[in-house]
Sequence to fold (482 residues):
Amino acid sequence: MLQVVFFARVKEELGCGRLELQWSEGSATVGALKEQLCQRENGAWRNVLSEDNLICAINHAVVDDAMAIADNDEVAFFPPVTGG
Amino acid sequence: MLQVVFFARVKEELGCGRLELQWSEGSATVGALKEQLCQRENGAWRNVLSEDNLICAINHAVVDDAMAIADNDEVAFFPPVTGG
Amino acid sequence: MATNPSPSLSVTISQADFDIAELQGSLQQGNAAEGAIATFTGYVRSDQSSGEVSAMELEHYPGMTEKSIQAILLQASERWPILSVKVVHRVGRLFPGDQIVWVGVSSGHRAAAFSACEFIMDYLKAEAPLWKKEHSEVGEIWVEAKASDSGRARRWD
Amino acid sequence: MATNPSPSLSVTISQADFDIAELQGSLQQGNAAEGAIATFTGYVRSDQSSGEVSAMELEHYPGMTEKSIQAILLQASERWPILSVKVVHRVGRLFPGDQIVWVGVSSGHRAAAFSACEFIMDYLKAEAPLWKKEHSEVGEIWVEAKASDSGRARRWD
Fold:
């Protein structure tokens, strides 16, 4: 299983904070997982997840679209950070 | 009258914190006043007041040896500052 | 070396307010070399681009936020001779004038304390997963990241 | 302009110890633009070049010291958008771990607060008539000015 989590504006716009997905070949990289998620809700998620500045972290480390995802990873998607 | 004040190591080495001097032609610039002071105690003050890094202030503003001194000025001599 | 112990690096994410005097006191460990503490406190401003802000909400990524700030503190401690450093960042609902973040750095001398403190704030703004939402007359608005913030972090590279 | 009042610039020279929380609180004037406070606190270190220091004496030039720090604060306020700034410097006899100096700067944003705070400390070290004498096993020694301190002030020119 993959834990997929969303934060802040991304969470709000998707109306979803956390998903559990079966790990599969189709979700074996960040890019592939994103494409799979983009198809949800008849493609409504694509607007949110195709943003250029979307950040992805695997197990709390920021990664890029080419990064491989292993089973049981926690994959997070969130907008640019604005703390401090 | 001139008020002449000394601080920190300079005060300690001269054994003097404050002097009142008559203003005169011989004390009309910082350089002239310094030369006059250097002759005190049989020249013992010269060791202290001829130090390269001695700082002079007139009425609380740092000045150089060429600065004119007016009657009633407060003239201060002190070593490089070390606060903070 | 026994005479140069690892610096203490501490991160707290909390809804609770903090006491700056207590935090600064906790940086002091009775070390003979302690000579300088630089601190930064961030507050909720009410005048924002979205208008007069009445409240703010801060969201974080539990686990990753602490970890990423800890990594920034480690970087700072490798770069400057830090004795002790502490970061406290609040989350949840905050109001104008409220304290948001506190960073304190203890070092032997001021140059290291100032540099490390500013470095930590710059990286925290650019890298720590925290997000602000402003509440104002015009509604609720997620604060947009500023290009200047990632620029300020990059200038330390 | 009424909307951009002159910053508050305050200098205190005193034998008494100070309370950092009270000082930081006094920088906050309820201004909607207050977003950032940077502070610096200097402490008496016991490990000095002259050996293990047991006490320190700080002498100042009453009148000139306040005036010269006030001039530094004015320079800082002309250079950065400061809302409020305060300096407290102790004089007299101090012991290891004692607070010596506190500088706090309130501004809308952190960059100005950090820069102004560090600028003030650098100039204070280089220009304010204050002198330290260390008491240690080897006797009483006036601290020598460091070339690096005048260098640090000059880098702002």
